[in-house]
Design a protein that fits this description.
Layout (H helix, E strand, L loop, with lengths): L4 E4 L3 H12 L4 E5 L13 E3 L3 H11 L3 H8 E7 L9 E6 L1 H13 L4 E5 L2 E7 L2 E7 L4 E3 L2 E4 L8 E4 L2 E4 L10 H8 L5 E7 L2 E3 L9 E3 L22 E5 L2 H9 L5 H4 L13 H7 L7 E6 L6 E5 L7 H8 L10 E3 L2 E7 L17 E3 L9 H20 L12 H11 L24 H11 L5 H23 L11 H5 L21 H12 L1 H13 L21 H10 L4 H5 L6 H13 L1 H4 L2
Parallel strand pairs: 1-2, 1-10, 2-6, 10-21
Antiparallel strand pairs: 3-5, 4-5, 7-8, 8-9, 11-12, 11-20, 13-20, 14-18, 14-19, 15-16, 16-17, 17-18
Helix pairs in contact: 1-10, 2-10, 2-12, 3-4, 6-9, 12-13, 13-15
Length: 606
Amino acid sequence: MEYDIIVVGAGHAGIEASLASARMSMKTLLITGNLETITKPSCNPAIGGIGKGQIVREIDAIGGQMALAADATGIQFRMLNTGKGRAVWSPRAQIDRIHYSNYMRKTLLSQENLTLLKGMVQRLTTEGEKIKGIVLDTGEKIYCRAVVLCPGTFLNGIIHIGNIFFPAGRMGEFPSRGISECLRELGFELSRLKTGTPPRISKNSIDFSRTKPQAGDKVPFPFSYRTACINRPQINCYLTATTSETVKIIRENLDRAPLYTGQIRSTGPRYCPSIEVKVVKFPDRSAHHIFLEPETYDTDEIYVNGFATSIPVDVQEKALKTIPGLEKARVIRYGYAIEYDFVPPYQLKPTLETKKIQGLFLAGQINGTSGYEEAAGQGLIAGINAANSISEREPFILGRSESYIGVMIDDITTREITEPYRIFTSRAEYRLILRQDNADYRLMDYGYRYGLIDEKTRRTMEKNRKLTEEFCLKLEQTYLPGVEEKTSLADYLRRPEKSLKDIFDLCDGLSDLPEHVKEEIEIEIKYSGYIKRELDLIQRTKNDDIIIPETLDFTKIQGISTEAKEKLTKYRPFTIGQAKRIDGVSPSDITALYVYMRLHRNKIGK
């Protein structure tokens, strides 16, 4: 068998990679160990969140599937951070994990140019420094022109519960063993990371009168620009907290916790710590928030968010019963930790193609990231670039000033990953420009260019963008009537207590605009000064986009420190901007690099 592109793994990264490549007319094969667990949420059944919601909207603007799937299967929608500035508003949805997986499976099975295959990949095959195909554990060889590797936590995965540990990719599924060995043989550096998940409990065993209900938004906010509205019934989540008795039980059993016995040696996510880590790091605090989140309409499983753990099952049972509302909790699935191999992503280009093997792309947790949204964003970029490489098109690289996806990929390819990477709004220098509401204006042209966005959707976006620009200008040039001091409607709108509806009667056609356009006009007018400041900053740093030739020998550049030469050689930055963000590379090193490139432009290539 022979394909254009083979995608290994059907998690969030693999789904977006395979759909993108197939929709770009590439004959694509998606291989997964279990067709029944496609995009199964191994941890929290939720999409979006702080920074993550922005990535989901960007995926949608480029033509990915995650936002549409969340809209179709969400059971609670909330816009987070609405009490703060618009730069950090972030959509989030609790999803039905069963319906979400079924939705994605149906989407894959109906996609033209895409074939699904149940199997375990044992090895990659290469010809020189170019990918040639894969070998299944059955010995069957399948050839291709590009591979997108999206194995999640399956590379040499080991699950830990108390002093018990066993090989698994996730609970109930076999790990992948041969790929790690193959990558090492090809010269890649591999390391280990850890993540974990909390127990699930029966809804019928919870006393909700002792918890605080958390409802979603009255009018659900869709993730996708292609979703008109959300009509699915919404379900409450509930808030409770640990107690001093919970903390006491966990502290007394730390000698049985694999994180503190030396059984687990790799690093876990800083921003989503296990309950035992919280107990140790915050010894004076007894109340840690616990969110009780429904997993599906179809069963009574409740996800105990905030209680990720790998402590023994008897300790999990005992500690849970000290939490208000959970005194009679029945555990359906116990929490566990999992360690897995990853490939430190300094070995990747910004396209997510590996530097060592042409045609081999990596996406998702194999790159040291954490989260469904981060994985899906990488999968989409890797799938597009795999197709571009075969079609001999220009690589698709998003800049830090264009998207959160660009921020994430730039971060992981230029900085040392010592813990699972998670996106936050604080990681972006230009977050007022990279808002969740304007992702379509920023990125939909790319999706249309690659055939991932249809003509009708793009036309609607273009119309809305044009209306936004026209009415922003109109409000600047129309003045408030009956006022001695000349005041434009735009200046009037900039007053903190004023909103767009206050000037509907003063500007013809304003009240008739689509809601999305009204939102953009109000934001663009109210934040115009701050937006201009960020645009000016982007313009001043335009030299950051200068591409560094792949053949440049950093060791020959005088004026660069020894440490900088070592780091630049190791990371091989794609642009001057990336070189700036490498630890150990100083401003004087960057100046010397820039001068050298200008003086030797003809020798090293433009």
